[in-house]
Write a structure and sequence with these properties.
The protein is mainly alpha-helical and 164 residues long. The chain is built from 8 helices and no strands. Helix 2 crosses helix 4, helix 3 runs antiparallel to helix 4 and helix 3 packs antiparallel against helix 8. It is elongated, with a radius of gyration of 18 Å.
Length: 164
């Protein structure tokens, strides 16, 4: 089944129909999605700022900040995946043709790749530069800037879906 026909089918499912036909369901789902992005961007932002030696957590070990924010990051990402899927189900054909949606999905994949590269690379040597006096390596700072920029553009692309 081609993708566009799958999108049409998804919109006609009971979930897609319920989200589309309810006067309150979509706004509630969207509000929860926005809260999820606030928690995710806030949590990752705290860690990114720590990697850059900025913010009020700059005096804390990076491993401690990472350990504290990780559950918030994964929980909010899960919430956004569920709510995003529900929102997609009611307007899948619109999203399929939306450049903003496509850009958002690509940027999310790139943000995930950025996090994976950080985890498999520079994070493995975290003990060497974990204390607040040692500047994180260049790769960690690049990952932090990349994360901050990517999530800003992801939020922007998400807003673009609603209006274009």
């Amino acid at each position: 089944m081609p993708i566009y026909q799958w999108c049409q089918w998804l919109e006609s499912t009971s979930i897609g129909t319920a989200v589309r036909d309810s006067s309150w369901l979509f706004p509630v789902i969207e509000s929860i999605h926005v809260l999820g992005i606030v928690v995710l961007v806030g949590s990752t932002g705290l860690f990114d700022l720590r990697l850059l030696g900025k913010g009020f957590l700059r005096d804390k070990p990076a491993s401690l900040v990472k350990r504290e924010v990780t559950p918030w990051v994964w929980s909010s990402f899960a919430v956004m995946a569920v709510t995003g899927s529900l929102m997609f189900s009611h307007e899948a054909t619109k999203c399929y043709t939306s450049w903003f949606f496509r850009i958002k999905i690509v940027l999310i994949a790139v943000a995930g790749l950025n996090a994976l590269i950080f985890e498999l690379g520079v994070n493995r040597r975290l003990a060497i530069w974990d204390d607040a006096e040692t500047e994180p390596p260049r790769a960690a700072r690049i990952a932090a800037w990349s994360s901050l920029i990517l999530w800003a553009f992801i939020v922007g692309a998400g807003r673009g879906i609603a209006y274009f």
